[in-house]
Amino acid sequence: QVGKIGELEAKLERLQKIEAAQKAIARSRFAAEPPAEAVVDGELNVSAIKVPSKAKAATVRSFQGPDAEKEAYIAGQWFLALNGNSVANEWLKSHGIQNTMKTSDNTAGGYLVPEVLESAIIRNVEQYGVARASARVYPMGPGVTLIPRRASGFTGYFAGEASSVTASDLAFDQIRLEARKLMVFSSWSSELPEDSVVALGDLLTAEVAQTFAVKEDQCLFSGDGTSTYGGIVGLANALAAGAVATTASNVDTPAEITIASFEEAMGKLLMLPGLSPRWYCHSSIYYNVMQRLAFASTGNTATNFNAGFGPTFLGYPVVFCQAMDSGAPTTDLSGKFICYFGDMSRAVTMGQKRGISIAVDNSYGFNTDSVYFRATERFDINVHERGTATTGGPIIGVKCNAS
Question: N or C: more exposed end of the chain, with fewer CB within 10 A?
Answer without folding.
Answer: N
